[in-house]
Specification:
Layout (H helix, E strand, L loop, with lengths): L2 E7 L5 H9 L17 E7 L2 E7 L11 H17 L2 E7 L6 H10 L6 E6 L6 H6 L10 E2 L8 H9 L16 E7 L5 H9 L17 E7 L2 E7 L15 H13 L2 E7 L6 H12 L3 E7 L6 H14 L7 E4 L8 H16 L4 H14 L4 E2 L2 E2 L1 E9 L4 E7 L6 H14 L8 E6 L13 H8 L1
Parallel strand pairs: 1-3, 1-4, 4-5, 5-6, 7-9, 7-10, 10-11, 11-12, 16-17
Antiparallel strand pairs: 2-3, 8-9, 13-14, 15-16
Helix pairs in contact: 11-12
Length: 457
């Protein structure tokens, strides 16, 4: 599992701006008013060949909260992020300088973690040595001056972060031949009820209150002589619906459950319909190349008009995951659950299927014959052969020339064509391209005999 890095600090010191810069997104809301961020935001940060999960937190000691109780809850969740992170970035304001709140936070944070990097933000146009001078007395080691807004000092920060970063956590889920199936979905969509139905017993806590599950729970079991592990994850809520934010551990462990699984079942509450949050959850699984099943739960009792409306919305919002298998179920009454699990078993068979280089190359040639690659500066892109690079996720390596210039649209066409020819259901097919070496590179063509004779004459 990837390591976890948490960003903490007082309100309005630039935590969200730094989060956006490091994750290369605009996910975090940035505003000049303090206290805008309350709930946990989690993104991926990459540096060279390393990656980690980055967590943005609410302001410690948030004075802009509507109530003291809310401020206390936000602060506690930020401190929880500190306790469970592998590395902590403590952000302070270089323009404001050292203040009493920083000294109080130093006393609070110092005993909580051994790997805290003090980062002095908003130092653009200032002498970093002068800005850092006051912050040495916090006793948190050498401060690093940056500007998250302009990107100054970010490279140095990344080098420090990923130096001696802990290796991936050992997998706590069962090994051997167990197929790992993660349940995703918004709170109260019926994930735990569905697991109880599959197991035939009440193993998971269910309650008619969103957010009952706060951790990712792995449950190994056997069915038809084969081993499976069901992973029930905490539901991820929309930021606008989180009064004081989800616990950092819930979000991070949900993302780790996706990484640890081979199959993801997205449980959708049919009566609410497909939401942007459902699409976001599915996108996390698609990006990681997971096999997908979409379970439309609570389908019983819906009118035909509501069912048609849900199907239309499904096509609109989840079109990017067209390979996912769709099942209409009732976790409470068991309708359609058996057929859904048979799809899980078929996915397992596809993972174990032998896909040789000759078969993949034949499929590639048929795709090329149907739709040739585009011309690049008058030269045709040539794709020569394909072979299996990995099974979980299913990844195919294609060798050829000018592969760096293949348009994204043509890559999507190839992936779709290969997937259809191989009759893959519910499985994505990831493509990698490798440039073939030119055996004549650096060699000059020898002159023809006629030209040699003319030179002699």
């Amino acid at each position: 599992m990837p390591a976890v890095i948490a960003i903490v600090g007082r309100p309005n010191v630039g935590k969200s701006t730094l989060f956006n810069h490091l994750t290369r997104t605009d996910t975090a809301l940035v505003d000049d008013r303090p206290g805008v961020t309350r709930d946990r935001l989690v993104g991926e940060i990459r540096h060279h060949d390393q990656r980690a999960l980055l967590v943005d937190t609410g302001g410690l000691g948030m004075e802009a909260a509507e109530s003291a109780a809310l401020a206390e809850r936000v602060t506690e969740q930020s401190l929880q992020a500190v306790r469970e992170a592998d590395r902590v970035l403590w952000l302070v304001d270089g323009r404001t300088g050292l203040c009493a709140e920083d000294e109080s936070l130093a006393e609070l944070l110092r005993p909580m973690h051994d790997h805290i990097q003090l980062v002095v933000n908003k130092t653009e146009g200032l002498d970093p040595d002068i800005v850092n001078a006051d912050f040495y007395q916090l006793g948190m080691g050498t401060p690093l001056a940056i500007s998250s807004k302009r990107g100054q000092g970010i490279s140095r920060l990344l080098d420090l972060l990923f130096t001696d970063l802990p290796a991936a956590e050992p997998d706590e889920l069962p090994e051997h031949d167990s197929l790992r199936v993660a349940m995703l979905g918004r709170p109260n969509a019926g994930k735990s009820t569905l697991i109880n139905r599959l197991l035939g017993e009440k193993r998971m806590l269910t309650f008619d209150q969103p957010g009952t599950t706060r951790d990712s729970v792995a449950i190994p079991f056997e069915r038809d002589g084969r081993q499976y592990t069901l992973i029930d994850t905490a539901g991820l809520r929309r930021r606008s619906q989180v009064e004081a934010g989800l616990e950092k551990t819930s979000v991070v462990k949900s993302l780790k459950a996706i990484d640890a699984s081979e199959v993801v079942i997205l449980v959708v509450d049919s009566r609410i319909g497909v939401t942007d949050q459902d699409a976001h959850l599915l996108g996390l699984a698609v990006d990681r190349g997971k096999a997908l099943i979409i379970a439309l739960n609570k389908w019983d009792g819906m009118s035909e008009d509501d069912r048609e409306r849900t199907k239309v919305l499904l096509d609109q919002k989840l079109a990017f995951a067209d390979y996912a298998q769709l099942h209409f179920i009732s976790a409470l009454h068991g309708t359609g659950v058996g057929e859904m699990f048979r799809s899980v078993a078929r996915l397992r068979d596809q993972f174990e299927r032998t896909i040789g280089t000759p078969l993949l190359t034949d499929c590639l040639e048929r795709a090329l014959a149907t739709h040739q690659p585009p011309l690049i500066h008058g030269r045709r892109i040539k794709l020569r052969y394909a072979h299996l690079a990995s099974r979980k996720p299913l990844k195919v390596m294609i060798h050829g020339n000018q592969v760096g210039r293949i348009p994204d649209a043509y890559k999507r066409y190839l992936a779709r064509s290969l997937r259809e020819q191989l009759q893959l259901e519910g499985l994505p097919l990831l493509l990698e391209f490798k440039q073939g070496e030119n055996p004549y590179a650096g060699r000059k063509n020898p002159p023809k005999r006629k030209k040699v004779r003319r030179r002699r004459d």
